[in-house]
Here is the input.
Amino acid sequence: MTTTPTRTLPNGDEIPAVGFGTYALSDEEVTEAVPVAIDAGYTHIDTAEGYENEAALGDVLADYDREDLFVTSKVLPPNLHYESLLESLSDSLERLGTDYLDLYLIHWPNPAISLRETIGALEQAHEEGLVRNIGVSNFSTYQLRFARKIADVPIAVNQIEFHPWYFREDLLDYCHEHDVVVEAAAPLARAQYLDDPRVVKAAEQHDVAPAQIVLKWAIEKGVVVLPKSTNPEHVASNIDLFGWELDDETIARLDEIQRMENVYMITPDHDTYGISP
Here is the structure.
């Protein structure tokens, strides 16, 4: 088993470059898939209160050494008021059976609630040791710039939709410039485009699966990927991304796709809160 490389967060913590996503997994699927993932080498697990599977995940994680795992959760947009966020965090910690989160994210921006209030709650949680790192998800460059300006604790991560068909290069460049780690939600574009001839050709050339090509492309960009699968073979292959390299020509071909076809909404309405990565 190849050791998974890490990215360094502003406080010096190391976040594994490949994490196991649990979006839309039922309790039963979590119970079955997460142990398979951990046995395959995943030590980074991503969930959210909106996924409604934290309790099942907590039951699984109870069988492992907490200090060996990097666990992320997220708070829903309606819960971004100061007290509401702290209550949501407390509930997530209880469901997950842990005293702290390695990373806690604002799941989606909510213009109806002051970001200063939300950041203040995250900073309080950080001060109390309930979260080791804070971050955001689905933030634009403008929103991230404002969050960074008002936060005394570094914004460590921006989790966004990122894959060759939605290559957000300007946002990626901004994050790299300011030491914000980018995490790719839906890094495989929910498998919608894995039959793209450019991906298939690259997979044949490198003797790997098309999904591995797409994930490796993001890794080469310095992005942390969060693939999800309930298929044990796919779970294993999705982390088998090291010890081999993509050639420059393949990376350039994938860079040129840029069809800007996102697979989940950029600005959710009330019906989509909590059901997108």
User: Anything to note?
Assistant: The first helix runs from residue 27 to 40. The CA atoms of residues 141 and 152 lie 18 Å apart.
